[in-house]
Amino acid sequence: MDFQFPRLGPQRLWRERRPAPNRVPGKEPDVQNLKKKALFGGSNWLVFLSCAIFCVVLSYHLRVFDNGFSNSDEPSHFVNSYFIAEYLSRAAFSHPMGFARDFYIAYPKLSIGHWPPLYYGLVGGLFLVLPALPETAVWINILVTALAACLTALLLRPHASPGWCLLTALLFLCLPTTVTGLNFFMLDQPLTVMVLLAALAWQRFARQPGYGAALLYGGIAAAAILIKGNGWLLGLFPLLHLGFTGRWRLLADPRSYAGAFFCLLLVVPWYALTAGVSADGFNYAPGLDYALLALGENLATLYENLGPIGLALGLLTLLRCWPGETRQDPRAGLVPTALAMVVAVLLLQSLVPVDITARYMMPAMPFALLLAVLGLLELRNLAALRPRVVAPGAVQAVAALLILAPGLWHIATARPQSDLRMADAAAMVVDTQQPQVVIIDGSPAGEGAFIAEALVRSRGMNLHVVRSSKLFSSSNFMGSDYQVLLRTPVEIAGVLEALGVGLIVLERREGGNIFAHSDLLEEYLLTPGSGYTKMATLAHRWRPGSTHVYASERQRQANLQEVRRINLPDKGDFL
Question: In this structure, are residues 169 and 149 in contact, taking their beta carbons and an 8 Å threshold?
Answer without folding.
Answer: yes
